[in-house]
Write a structure and sequence with these properties.
8-stranded mixed β-sheet; alpha+beta; Enolase-like, domain 1; 27% strand; 2 domains
Length: 328
């Protein structure tokens, strides 16, 4: 048994560490990683951030947005949320026994958590833990959250769509009523719960190895590369599966209607329909915006810089201003 503990609260460091441990696992190792994060929104590998959270609001409040290695829904992390990661080869992987480590740990605080069909743990019908998974190369990662004393108002505020007009086949989160475990037992703390989880995990091993990872592996180039990956815009935003966004606005000169298809964070096709615009202007707009990134400022600026016949300059300016005032 190997237990990894971290005092870091950087979400990108933790996500990189999980993948690093998964990649460098030996066949007989069973790992438990306990960690917490400063305020962050963490989306599943196959999710659309603009569909899952208030992207610009989070940026303004310096709340990190991260994409993890596993599937599943979006979660909000803060320092009142305990995170656990079980990492092993698949021959040692057992979801039931792993989730029972968490359930048994909470029984020490007179809390009987129930496992639901969608792999969440509940108390009194409310969610207190979500779980997600990654299986690859005969190795498995099972990680989850545990709401000890989180800022529930922030969770409810930030985990809502930035843009309602997006159509996508990306995985969407299923909202569920949530509860902090301290509401049911105010003696709970992060450290006390972590201690019980570690004790349950190590019951079958009289001499588990404990690793304090903040100083371990810092100079490892592969860990540093993973850390850079998880911080990168390419991973967080440009890995978003293909989606379509519709924009419709009634101006004094007529209705502007458009459907834009994005893939890997870039415009791949755009269709503009407007009786108030000349067909040649429409074609120029479509050509101008194709291949640009999903960024309202860049789309708006491209339209402002576009060569437009004088009769339609004010029309294109209206559209450019509309896009800039509705940021994404």
């Amino acid at each position: 048994m190997h237990v990894y503990l971290s005092n870091s609260t950087d979400i990108f460091t933790h996500l990189a560490r999980e993948e690093y441990l998964l990649n460098n696992l030996s066949p007989e190792q069973r790992i438990l990683y306990i960690w917490k994060s400063h305020d962050a929104i963490v989306i599943g590998k196959n999710q659309n951030p603009w569909k899952e959270c208030l992207v610009n609001d989070a940026r303004e409040k310096d709340i990190s947005i991260a994409r993890r290695l596993s599937g599943g829904g979006t979660v909000f992390h803060d320092e009142g949320n305990l995170n656990f990661s079980f990492i092993s080869y698949q021959h040692n992987y057992n979801f039931d026994s792993q989730i029972n480590v968490i359930k048994k740990a909470l029984r020490h605080f007179a809390l009987q958590l129930k496992l639901q069909k969608n792999n969440i743990l509940t108390m009194n019908g409310k969610k207190c833990s979500g779980n997600a998974f990654c299986h690859r190369k005969n190795r498995s990662l099972h990680h989850g959250t545990l709401l000890i004393n989180s800022k529930l108002d922030r969770i409810n505020h930030y985990l809502q769509p930035s843009i309602n007009s997006i159509k996508t086949h990306a995985i969407e989160s299923n909202p569920y009523p949530i509860i902090n475990l301290t509401k049911l037992n105010d003696s709970l703390t992060f450290d006390k719960v972590a201690e019980q989880i570690i004790a349950e995990f190590c019951k079958s091993d009289s001499s588990p190895e404990i690793h304090y990872v903040d100083k371990e592996g810092v100079g490892d180039s592969s860990l540093n590369i993973l850390s850079q990956k998880y911080r990168s815009k390419d991973w967080i935003f440009n890995e978003t599966p293909r989606f379509v966004m519709s924009l419709r606005k009634c101006f004094s000169w007529g209705i502007f209607d458009t459907e834009i298809q994005f893939n890997k964070g870039q415009v791949v096709t755009i269709k503009i329909d407007s009786a108030g615009l000349d067909k040649h202007v429409i074609k120029t707009m479509e050509e101008t915006l194709t291949h640009l990134p999903f960024d309202s400022n860049k789309l708006s600026n491209a339209l402002s810089a576009m060569k437009t016949p004088i009769d339609y300059q004010s029309h294109v300016s209206d559209i450019s201003r509309y896009i800039k005032l509705n940021p994404f």
